[in-house]
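$ ./design --mode recover --in tokens.txt
reading tokens...
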């Protein structure tokens, strides 16, 4: 088709010149909702020198009428001259080829900052086909952001913590070290094991960006020599310097990997095909989520069944949960940037990008703030939590059956200004230290009160379904570049597995997998009945002179080792232990206590959910 288009370029240009714009057609003409929480824009990159040299010409033209673009395709006909097929799309803001990144910063990124400042979540993500300018735009925006973040106000009133990470398939990496993306009991996404650095200056931030860029997986594609083969995410957490005012604000800048059309895959190796397939799967789940929120408008009310949005189906959409979760209660603002390659050879991919941009444009979904309920501690105000402490503990003293009540812990010392969610998020040792400042209160009393508050919280999340323990999501046919994936069934934090994949977890073994083992016999101090939970270590975590739990020196080749012994294959893996924590059903990951385990001792795969408040994990 490319040869045909290039051979007919003069006819194409003369047809485009004669084109008379009309109002956008029916399906593409829906009025764009004035949505306050999702802003959509497109950026058309300039046509590049090598594209001009190969005879390519632009196919997309912004109209003077704001937010509308015309896309022209040359249509092959069986007899006679090719004709022009034109479509108009209304897509919110349009940034043309001559528009500097600074204008995008002012219009898209800067407006997200006030809500992040007030404890909300701001997200800007760029999507589009490979070579359409996503990395160029996001790296430019990150540099402009560095100027703003360190100009005074932000750093005097907030502490900034930055994590830079990549998602490849369903795995997450920070500086090539794998980590897990889990959902906590507040329904928030947590990056478990990813490094978060405190950043105090522009130069530190820029250095971190450079560093992350050097780690990013890239490869040549048909359309881009330095194509990003993973989704790159910069997450900035703005923590309050003064306690108790608001939650930490979060800002995400996301540069998605580019989709590749089936016809561009011809020269790919098997590994590259697998990688492209994984990218396309995560992007098609993202598109499912976009379709899901586009199918509803208005406010999702409490108790009302929202649209089905499969955001738990990929790590990418788990990270973007706050954008897509209809039961979300955090103030979330999102800017979506569709990047466009203007060449007339790429009109099918461009049309697809524009369709999704338009779909999001017509979407208005507002999430309601959490309504106060005495049964939901995370919805409690400071006033309510203080009266709860007084009443509950007083009641416990009267009944004398609770060790949490005598003497009554001072509410003004335990929760001077915290809301229920903020009090739950205080680490256990800090919570106990605050309780002990009331004269006569004992440590066991403080722990009992903490456990009581947490029990109430966990019960409330179970009742509302937040935390999503063990329910099963099903997605139907997901189209990917002409193919489709079979329906997928999975449990929240586990691997994405295709239905019909009959492999057991032992055939899918990978670093970072969490398994339950009957390995107690190898482990000193444990009873022979005890089951251990452990995380399979990646090869590169074994340092020099490391000893395992038995005191033996760890040979790095133990990791993912496979040996033949008297005709039987032994596969032995170095694992980090997950040990029981202080509270019931709570666990700690003890990376430095390691054990070498035979595959035959592993019984099942389990998943861990991190609880940032107690710093413990729960096993699902
Ligand atoms: N606004 C722009 N002005 C000038 N050059 C641009 C612009 N946008 C992109 N480019 C150039 O186009 C090429 C492809 O851009 P980029 O790598 O950002 O694409 P991408 O969408 O991130 O691709 P992939 O998905 O394959 O990673 C690069 O050479 C880049 O310098």
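writing sequence...
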């Amino acid at each position: 088709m490319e040869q045909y288009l290039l051979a007919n370029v003069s006819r194409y240009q003369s047809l485009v010149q004669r084109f008379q714009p009309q109002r956008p057609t029916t399906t593409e003409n829906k009025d764009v909702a004035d949505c306050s929480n999702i802003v959509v824009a497109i950026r058309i990159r300039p046509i590049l020198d090598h594209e001009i040299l190969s005879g390519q010409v632009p196919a997309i033209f912004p109209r003077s009428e704001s937010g509308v673009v015309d896309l022209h395709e040359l249509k092959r006909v069986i007899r006679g001259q090719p004709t022009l097929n034109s479509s108009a799309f209304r897509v919110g803001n349009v940034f043309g080829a001559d528009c500097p990144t600074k204008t995008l910063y002012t219009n898209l990124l800067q407006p997200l900052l006030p809500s992040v400042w007030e404890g909300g979540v701001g997200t800007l993500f760029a999507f589009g086909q490979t070579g359409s300018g996503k990395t160029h735009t996001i790296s430019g925006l990150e540099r402009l952001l560095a100027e703003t973040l360190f100009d005074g106000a932000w750093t005097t009133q907030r502490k900034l913590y930055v994590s830079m990470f990549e998602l490849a398939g369903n795995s997450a990496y920070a500086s090539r070290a794998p980590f897990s993306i889990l959902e906590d009991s507040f329904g928030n996404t947590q990056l478990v094991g990813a490094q978060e650095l405190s950043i105090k200056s522009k130069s530190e931030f820029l250095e971190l960006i450079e560093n992350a860029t050097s780690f990013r997986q890239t490869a040549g594609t048909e359309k881009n020599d330095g194509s990003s083969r993973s989704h790159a995410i910069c997450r900035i957490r703005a923590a309050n310097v003064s306690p108790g005012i608001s939650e930490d604000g979060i800002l995400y800048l996301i540069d998605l990997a580019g989709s590749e059309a089936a016809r561009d895959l011809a020269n790919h190796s098997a590994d590259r095909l697998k990688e492209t397939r994984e990218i396309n799967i995560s992007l098609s789940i993202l598109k499912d989520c976009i379709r899901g929120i586009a199918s509803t408008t208005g406010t999702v009310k409490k108790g009302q069944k929202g649209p089905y949005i499969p955001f738990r189906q990929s790590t990418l959409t788990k990270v973007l949960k706050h954008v897509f979760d209809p039961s979300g209660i955090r103030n979330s603002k999102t800017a979506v940037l569709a990047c466009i390659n203007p060449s007339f050879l790429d009109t099918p991919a461009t049309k697809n990008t524009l369709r999704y941009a338009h779909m999001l444009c017509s979407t208005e979904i507002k999430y309601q703030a959490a309504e106060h309920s005495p049964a939901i501690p995370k919805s409690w105000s400071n006033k309510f939590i203080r009266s709860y402490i007084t009443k509950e503990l007083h009641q416990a003293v009267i009944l004398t059956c609770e060790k949490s009540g005598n003497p009554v812990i001072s509410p003004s010392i335990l929760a001077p200004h915290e809301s229920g969610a903020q009090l739950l998020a205080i680490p256990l040792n800090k919570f106990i230290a605050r309780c002990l400042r009331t004269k006569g209160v004992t440590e066991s009393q403080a722990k009992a009160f903490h456990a009581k508050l947490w029990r109430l919280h966990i019960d409330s999340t179970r009742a509302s379904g937040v935390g999503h323990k063990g329910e099963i999501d099903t997605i139907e046919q997901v189209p990917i570049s002409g193919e489709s994936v079979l329906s997928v069934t999975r449990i929240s934090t586990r691997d994405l597995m295709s239905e019909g994949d009959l492999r057991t977890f032992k055939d899918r073994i990978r670093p970072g997998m969490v398994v339950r083992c009957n390995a107690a016999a190898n482990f000193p101090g444990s009873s022979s009945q005890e089951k251990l939970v452990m995380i399979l270590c990646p090869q590169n975590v074994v340092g020099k002179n490391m000893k395992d739990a038995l005191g033996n020196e760890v040979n790095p080749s133990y990791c993912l080792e496979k040996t033949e012994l008297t005709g039987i294959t032994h596969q032995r893996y170095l694992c980090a232990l997950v040990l029981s924590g202080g509270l019931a059903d709570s666990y700690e990951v003890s990376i430095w206590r390691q054990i070498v385990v035979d595959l035959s001792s592993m019984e099942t795969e389990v998943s861990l959910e991190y609880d940032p408040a107690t710093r413990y994990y729960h096993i699902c």
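exit 0
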